[in-house]
């Protein structure tokens, strides 16, 4: 027999199913936020007293929550605290790890703070005891922050401020003396201001004179710049001429050497020609037909006067 649902029943059924799915999703989200579905490992530690620590208090590593206090028991004259720590952080609990009790403020809820040890140390097995450090008392904190010395310094500072205030109130003190000197300075400044117009006229006259001198100096500098340019051009021409002379001086030894060689060659040619002529003169065919040699003339000029 088939069951026939009306439209209203179907809508109610869908609504109920949606509510169930929504509740399930909410439980899952809350559970993930509260670490309900994660595995834990258990350790314990022993304190001299409870330090007002409560069950379900946080266990924090570097101020990040990594577990809870699951149980607090009294054992003889000490307090045994059972800690449930997330399995993901088990490797951080090494042999030299320690724990202590802290609170965010003087009136806040206490929690167990895990103080990390050497990261290279071996990890602690589940169920072992973690060494504890006593919680610092208010007296310890006062000693640590040197509150007594700070209070003495504050008292000294207040006394110094009081002395300064009394000195400032004294009519013959430094404050009123400064006011009198300031009044004298203002009076002198007023007198100087009254004489300012005449001084300004002198200043304006001097500025006009300085302006004229500056203009003349500008033109003189322009002429001097042009003269320096001409001198630079002349020096360049002199450098060029000296360079040409230097290059020509390099060629003189070569020319002298070439001339000497030419003279030697001419002398050699003349000597060769003379030898040929002497040979021709000694030839019996030519010697008889040569005219007699002219007699030499005496060209002696006589003794010098």
TrEMBL record:
Record has Lipoprotein as a keyword: no
Segments forming domain Mce/MlaD: 40-117
Alphabetized Pfam families for the sequence: MlaD
Transmembrane intervals: 12-31
Keywords for this protein: Membrane, Transmembrane, Transmembrane helix
Domain of life: Bacteria
Keyword Chaperone (UniProt): no
Protein name, UniProt field: Mammalian cell entry related domain protein
